[in-house]
Design goal:
Blueprint lengths: L1 H16 L14 E3 L5 H12 L5 H9 L2 E3 L1
Antiparallel strand pairs: 1-2
Helix pairs in contact: 2-3
Length: about 70
């Protein structure tokens, strides 16, 4: 019984060690999805130059115009 408990504890720790926590994932570039869109880096750079802050509606609209949407 003791062996089973130790095995369960080791197994649980190994399974949880592969988990990744992303803080504020909606703020990262990973939150964008595109289908038949322009290359992401080019679209992002152009929209930053056009709209400035990436946290405003103008930036989101610019990215949408280039085929990218934020999830």
């Amino acid at each position: 019984m003791k062996r089973l408990l130790i095995l369960a504890a080791v197994s649980a720790s190994l399974m949880s060690s592969a988990c990744v926590t992303v803080i504020d994932a909606s703020d990262s570039d990973d939150a964008w999805h595109g289908n038949n869109a322009q290359p992401f880096d080019e679209a992002r750079d152009a929209c930053r130059a056009e709209a400035g802050n990436r946290h405003n509606d103008a930036f989101r609209d610019c990215m949408a115009g280039k085929g990218w949407t934020r999830s």
